[in-house]
Request: fold
Amino acid sequence: GLEADLDAALQERPALEIVNDTLLAGMKVVGELFGSGQMQLPFVLQSAEVMKTAVAYLEPHMEKTDEEGKGTIVLATVRGDVHDIGKNLVDIILSNNGYTVVNLGIKQPVAAIVEAAEEHRADVIGMSGLLVKSTVIMKENLQELNARGLAARYPVILGGAALTRAYVEQDLHALYEGEVRYARDAFEGLRLMDALMAVKRGVPGARLPELKQRRVPRRETAELQVTEPAGPVRSDVATDHPVPTPPFLGTRVVKGIALKEYAAWLDEDALFKGQWGLKAARTGDGPGYRELVEAEGRPRLRGWLERLHTGSLLEAAVVYGYFPCHADGDALVVLDEDGGERCRFTFPRQRRGRRLCLADFFRPKESGETDVVGFQVVTVGSRIGQATAELFAADAYRDYLELHGLSVQLAEALAEYWHARVRAELGFAGQDPEAIEDMFALKYRGARFSLGYGACPDLEDRAKIAGLLR
Ligand code: B1M
Reply:
């Protein structure tokens, strides 16, 4: 049915321009399908690749009609945050739609964002961040833009899983002296960018989407407070099981670990679902998750592992060590050889239920006994990171997402593998369950924690571990 329209349009407009617009319209449809759960991330990225290639092919043949360009956004993941997949997706979608994107990368201080915005005469600033802490950093960044008198100049788009629409569109909007909006995904980012540019250029009828109001009023903090029992608390974790004997105290470096040693620890579901975005279609009669794993996931995983091997892209290494320690209230105290305090990690205690705290799993100081704690840092090396960056630069978006996700999960697999080794060295690997799924469900003796999660949220503590492991 489009043919007649197309014929009519061709009488009036250059064909190339129509093809270009059609590609843009196609990408919008992809966006809608993605938003409604009918299209999956890998295929969105493939569509974006096709579009980018096609547009690049058309561009030299098209007349430049718009001298000032469609608009420029400076995009960054905020200070202290390393998550960049979402931000890079925003980059892909915006640049494919004709916007100039200055992508600063991760861990960007506000000064660098402002500097880039001034240098590139940006129309919009985009900030991304996934850590809860990043929501606070974003607030500070907006305050800084206010303080520098730049708020009126730079509308801001914020995105990332830790944000909520109400936090951005009410709380942050109230404090920012310019426009600030929330984008749930890259396509909402695109719609906002379109609206912001239309408003800036004075397009008749252009306006920003309405701000969303909180349906339930925010509760006062006082209401949320739980009454804590008076005096020191400790949970019911036993203190009388034997303290394991480590094979050594201090640190060891292990290099050249072959992929076949830790590949079995790869959590395929975390890779396929979490990293590669394979999901059963929400509507229609599309393939189920298991079918996708067989048709897409496993064959592509085999291909990647082969490429990693032939290209020598993995350089797995571990630094780990055992240290004397004891618990002091809610703190784990790492001791030196003479029993003096070397450093301490203070952990939060659950506010209800068993009221657990990580410190409870070590012998208390009052017992007069010394316990042992293991620390480890693992890496799959930097070559795979370089290869990932090259794929992104070459607009090979699906490959980029897959290799990136695989590198993350291989690092995780290496950490699991080494943790099993630690259990063996401490003499209780015999209690490990048989099935790998039970391993991923943590049904073994011991536990491996990573800083930044609920039980041990303080990311600054990583510096102490780096210090201990030298
Ligand atoms: Co991390 N991580 N991570 N991580 N990680 C989260 C965020 C976490 C929620 C996991 C969890 O608890 N289950 C948790 C945060 C908890 C918290 O803050 N309370 C967490 C943690 C704790 C950590 C570490 C601290 C772990 C550790 O090392 N101990 C550490 C962080 C260190 C640091 O930042 N300083 C860390 C590290 C990592 C990896 C390196 C392993 C890896 C990131 C790799 C990378 O990005 N280069 C990673 C990953 C992959 C995740 C999860 C599993 C997935 C994130 C992701 O890529 N999603 C994540 C859990 C989760 O979200 N399910 C988690 C896919 C991506 C497409 O979505 O980024 O949300 P997203 O982007 C969306 C939208 O949000 C939006 O558009 C995108 C979709 O279209 N959007 C924007 C995003 N930015 C936008 C900007 C816009 C517009 C839209 O305009 C400007």
